[in-house]
Specification:
Shape: globular
Number of strands: 13
CATH class of the largest domain: Alpha Beta
Order of helices and strands: HHHEHEHEHEHEHEEHEEHEEHEEH
CATH topology of the largest domain: Aspartate Aminotransferase, domain 2
Largest sheet: 7 strands, mixed
Low-confidence stretches: none
Strand content: 5-15%
Mean pLDDT: 96
Number of domains: 2
CATH architecture of the largest domain: 3-Layer(aba) Sandwich
Strand order of the largest sheet: 1-7-6-5-4-2-3
Number of helices: 12
Bound molecules: pyridoxal-5'-phosphate
CATH superfamily of the largest domain: Type I PLP-dependent aspartate aminotransferase-like (Major domain)
Structural class: alpha/beta
Distance between the termini: 13 Å
Length: 415
């Protein structure tokens, strides 16, 4: 039972820190590369520059960038750099706290735009069943109706199915580049054209792909069309705290133009506190993640990201090859980037029992459904342990043949 009494007397810092270190001992072992997802480790030099920047900005507030102009500059420089990377010469945006906040704000902006430009009072979001849960959260919070459509046999969003539900109330049509469940890139041009056909917004969720696809294209890898070069795309989200290798708490939401960006912001002065203007859902914003992201992106540059993407995609390819060679496992879809998912094609093999056996060996992989499958987001931190992982995966499959799993619980329960 947790001790619920508020600490009476304070304790020496050394004691407190020793306690914290102890609390962490059961956490995922990301620094050893054994966590596929959750923490993205760019290597010693990237961590060092992030640590130093975080230390500099530990206490700064981005609520008021007039008081902290450096944070205003950090935000506009990062947004400008990423807009350039995504081929949006007029694109403008703001930093947010993560992929979910970027998506929530894209939903809110699409709703405001649909009301302002087309008088839509019962707004709808059209999305595939592979789109991230955060869009449903946004619909729930901002009062939109979700029109959810099935994916095609190749597991990408189906523009034909989406076309049947796009109509005068559509405020937003969603494409993923890439989607979380399978790591596939949707047919963005077709989806964006659908949105444009009714004057709706089209959001490309590049939370996972934004810091991979541009560099993969530079590396000569398959280059789907997904960014602001695509007619009809109005917003793009990309998470710097994922494959951008910045510490947690930072993503970007870009709009195709400054004009469209105004639907994101909230400006209010009908209270006793004067003008209150925020671009985000948060009020007070930490400067730390913004500064650390700026430092990491500046440190890596295009060359650094190309290097990280090259080794990460090679590692993901290697794991896919290994999975193909293990009897009983079946890859889902045909992703070619850093995400891979596999199910069991053997009725006597419970893939979650494979997950249990991997956990017992110190690996963290995500579990998802339907269908029951294991999900890996490969990143730089995993590159050196790929062969060890494949060996443990084969052993885990053998072990799991005689077991069934405790379940799919990938997230701790909320209490
Ligand atoms: C494609 C995609 N979109 C959005 C999100 C949500 O991002 P966050 O967890 O940073 O809020 C994720 C998270 O994995 C994602 O993979």
């Amino acid at each position: 039972m947790t001790d619920r009494s508020f600490p009476h007397a304070g304790r020496p810092a050394a004691d407190v820190l020793a306690d914290l270190a102890d609390k962490r001992s059961g956490d995922a072992r990301w620094a050893e590369g054994r966590t596929f997802g959750l923490v993205f480790d760019g290597g010693d030099d990237v961590r060092a520059v992030a640590d130093a920047a975080a230390h500099l900005y530990l206490h700064e507030s981005a609520l008021n960038t007039a008081a902290f102009p450096s944070l205003g500059a950090i935000q506009s420089e990062l947004c400008g750099w990423i807009a350039g990377l995504f081929h949006g010469p007029e694109a403008a945006g703001f930093l947010t706290s993560g992929g979910t906040e970027s998506i929530l704000l894209a939903v809110k902006a699409a709703r405001e735009r649909a009301l302002a430009e087309r008088g839509v009072t019962e707004p709808e979001i059209v999305l595939a069943e592979s789109a991230h849960a955060a869009f449903h959260k946004g619909a729930h919070l901002f009062g939109l109706t979700v029109c959810r459509t099935p994916v095609t046999a190749d597991l990408t969003a189906d523009p034909d199915a989406m076309a049947t539900v796009v109509g005068p109330n559509t405020a937003l049509v969603v494409a993923s580049a890439m989607d979380y469940p399978t790591g596939l890139v949707d047919p963005v041009p077709e989806i964006a054209a659908l949105a444009a056909s009714v004057g709706a917004s089209c959001h490309v969720d590049a939370c996972m792909g934004g810091f991979v696809l541009p560099f993969a294209e530079m590396e000569g890898r398959p280059a789907p069309t997904w960014d602001f070069r695509t007619e009809g795309v109005t917003t793009i989200s990309a998470d710097i705290h994922k494959l951008g290798y910045a510490p947690k708490g930072v993503s970007v939401l870009l709009h195709a133009s400054r004009e469209l960006r105004r639907h994101q912001t909230f400006v209010f002065d009908q209270w006793l506190g004067g003008l209150y203007a925020t671009p985000n859902l948060q009020g007070t914003r930490a400067g730390l993640p913004m500064a650390a992201a700026w430092a990491v992106v500046s440190h890596l540059g295009i060359d650094g990201y190309r290097h990280l993407v090259r080794s990460t995609l090679d590692a993901a390819d290697h794991i896919r090859d290994g999975v193909r060679g293990i009897e009983g496992l079946a890859l889902r879809g045909d992703p070619v980037h850093q995400i891979l998912t596999f199910a069991s094609d053997d009725p006597d093999l419970d893939v979650f029992a494979v997950g249990d056996a991997l956990s017992a060996r110190g690996w963290h992989v995500d579990r998802q459904y339907p269908p029951d499958c294991l999900h890996l987001t490969v990143s730089n931190g995993n590159v050196s342990v790929v062969d060890e992982f494949l060996g443990d995966l084969a052993a885990s499959v053998e072990e799991a043949r005689s077991a069934t799993s405790g379940g799919s619980g990938q997230y701790a329960t909320i209490d």
